[in-house]
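Section: Multi-chain targets

For targets with more than one molecule, the full set of components is provided together so that the structure can be written out for the assembly as a whole rather than chain by chain. Components appear in the order listed by the source. The example entry contains two components.
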Amino acid sequence: MELDRLVFTFFNAEIAREYLPDIVKGFWITVKLGLAVIASGLALGLAAAMLRSFQVRAINLLIVVYADAFRALPPLMVIIILFFAFPYAGLPMSAFTATWLSLALVLGAFAEEIFWAGIISIPKGQSEAARSTGMNRWRTLVHVVLPQAVRLTIPPLTNRTIAITKGTALGSVVALSEILGAAHSAASLAGNPTPLTLGAIAYLLLFIPFVIFGRWVESRFAWRR
Amino acid sequence: MEAILQQFLNPAIAAKVFPYLLKGFGTTLLLSLLVVPLGLAGGLAVAVLPTLRRRWLSWLVIAYVDFFRAFPPLVLLLFIYFGAPFLGVNLPAILAVALGFLLNTSSYYGEIFRAGIESVPRGQWEAARSTGLSWRQTMAHVVVPQATRNVLPDLIGNTLEVVKLTTLASVVAIPELLNAARNAQALTYNPTPIVLAALIYLVALWPIVRLISRLEHKAVAVR
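Its structure, encoded as tokens over all components, is:
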């Protein structure tokens, strides 16, 4: 009897059928948002770390301040600022844009630190040797330093990227209908938590493969101490 | 510039809401003092269990860790908070937060402690056991202290993440800093409270970010 009630409450087939399309729609929004965050966040982090390797004092200071600020601020705080404070400056943005921009900036900050740690872990002799063969600084960075550095950064970067991409669920706080937002409003409409169960399953389908990939990457490219 | 300052960091409003936000920040600290030790204890348990060398136990731990690392913490929190009443359990928000954080953060802390325990050479174990220390004594006095020291930067880094994660409690109406800021914003029709809250986070957490950077760069230099 108890089990029946549990099934009726959390795995109600009728309600699941009714609200599945909403959750599926949310699923694709989460996928789109997640891919946008990963692509722009990693690109931003790599660009900032490369820029930093040219050692121009003013630019370095700017990059360090950016990376520190966005590693100190909680991502939800950043989303709230972009969504609720920026309209007062005449810069209103959609919930999707606010969530994407916030998470991309946060991922960019962490990625910059990880790429930078990778770059400075490459012995100086490598770039000196490359320079002495006549390569310029740009080509030394792109063809000699980065290929070695990026390899080292893959495990920490994978884990950090997964953790921040899960933050797409925070978009629900500013009424974005991604998985959690769709599931939450469906659950209140139905007066039953089954849509939340569906949402939870959707997240697991989406992220378990990444977590397992992260585990594999960790054993494959382990930082050798 | 003047106009922007009036709008985003209005001195009159800032002065009025500052005590209220400070109280919210106090709640953030208390909340962190609750969830960080919970996560550390849970994580240590998660890391120590596989060393008992029972195959089913190791698989169970891996499944637990991967499951909760794949689950967005906000989803977990809302699932617990809104699901519990349907089971006839009236769960106060603070308990829902404690449970959600325990499940989520213990997986992350667990992975860190596991790496730490693996970094302690086997000889340490053997030496400790051969002097007559029991399994438990070896773990508590020989392995865990060294493991903790080896992964200290990662532990501090994760603790910072947990403190930042307490902002999620605002969603279930716990009056921590972000929640206080949003209430104040709704009352004053002005973004000053949320900008001020962001500044409080920056001032409070920036030194920890610096510390982590220093520790990490030192670890890279040693390598």
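Chain A has a mean pLDDT of 93.
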